[in-house]
Amino acid sequence: MASRGGPRAAGTDGSDFQHRERVASHYQMSVALKSEIKKLIYTHVGIWLLLLAQMCVGHLKLLPHDQVAMPYQWQYPYLLSILPSLLGLLSFPRNNISYLVLSMISTGLFSMAPLIYGAMEMFPMAQQLYRHGKAYRFIFGFSAVSVMYLVVVVAAQVHGWQLYYSKKLLDSWFTSTQEKKKK
């Protein structure tokens, strides 16, 4: 068009290049979804670390059991839920579809399944607490079943949104793959 300091080409104001500088929508969506999934993964790591800390304190008897209760059975398999998050993070740099699919499948197995089992495992204790007001496990003065149900609800939402955004990201990557094949 024109050199840096020289005259412009006749009949142009210099703005006719803007149509070439737009980023394709699926690339914009990919970046936005990766950002959201990373936030959810970091939130998951925070929850995971809190559960790990509770398990370590309970087993190593660093605090009395009336302050920090022993972990429930569902918490042990939930520790494997860090693997899907790592697979998800590994899929981002090169848009690796297979890693993202493995992350989604293993999120269901290692994250959602233990949470569902945990809700069922703790249900009789929650019933006893709310019907009779009796709690036998405590975490810093709060009923352990109440605290763990709160953790289950928050973690289920985090993993649910993570699956939702991963599915949208997968669709976005398939769109870009299909467009590349057409060319």
UniProtKB/TrEMBL annotation:
<keyword id="KW-0256">Endoplasmic reticulum</keyword>
<dbReference type="Pfam" id="PF07086">
    <property type="entry name" value="Jagunal"/>
</dbReference>
<feature type="transmembrane region" description="Helical">
    <location>
        <begin position="138"/>
        <end position="158"/>
    </location>
</feature>
<dbReference type="InterPro" id="IPR009787">
    <property type="entry name" value="Jagunal"/>
</dbReference>
<protein>
    <recommendedName>
        <fullName>Protein jagunal homolog 1</fullName>
    </recommendedName>
</protein>
<keyword id="KW-0812">Transmembrane</keyword>
<dbReference type="GO" id="GO:0016192">
    <property type="term" value="P:vesicle-mediated transport"/>
</dbReference>
<dbReference type="GO" id="GO:0038158">
    <property type="term" value="P:granulocyte colony-stimulating factor signaling pathway"/>
</dbReference>
<dbReference type="GO" id="GO:0007029">
    <property type="term" value="P:endoplasmic reticulum organization"/>
</dbReference>
<keyword id="KW-0472">Membrane</keyword>
<keyword id="KW-1133">Transmembrane helix</keyword>
<feature type="transmembrane region" description="Helical">
    <location>
        <begin position="40"/>
        <end position="62"/>
    </location>
</feature>
<dbReference type="GO" id="GO:0005789">
    <property type="term" value="C:endoplasmic reticulum membrane"/>
</dbReference>
<feature type="transmembrane region" description="Helical">
    <location>
        <begin position="99"/>
        <end position="118"/>
    </location>
</feature>
<comment type="similarity">
    <text>Belongs to the jagunal family.</text>
</comment>
